[in-house]
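User: Spore gernimation protein KA, Paenibacillus ihbetae:
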Amino acid sequence: MKRNVYVENMHIINISDGSTCICGRSEDLHAYTEALAVQRQVPVFYEDEGSFEDYPIFTRDIPKLPDISDVEMDIIQEHNLIRVNRVDVLSVASASTVQIGTTEQLDLEARVKAIRHFITDQPKALERYKGIIILPYPD
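Assistant: Predicted structure for Spore gernimation protein KA:
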């Protein structure tokens, strides 16, 4: 039985980085994102820094779950309508999804490398600086 979806009110503030919002049925859903999240106490960034190839997390194989399509299952759907009154979502990010309905196959992958740089002896000239410094990459 195909099911219909009725959503009275959906409020999503942010959808980003390969993410989706689906009201209804989908066959296959594939989403992928990769990101370098760099945070520095003093925001100094070089123009050419941040190559994904420099970090093994972006090329490492991810183990796949075995196919379980041979599992026998009985599903009883007494109603052909999915009714939702209200959904509030702050953010959907990094290859994730918000779905009201059904999906046959999901393949979602997010690879994020978080880098944090903190200093202990901050130069006096930067004590009150609140902006971002972008420098040419040193040769």
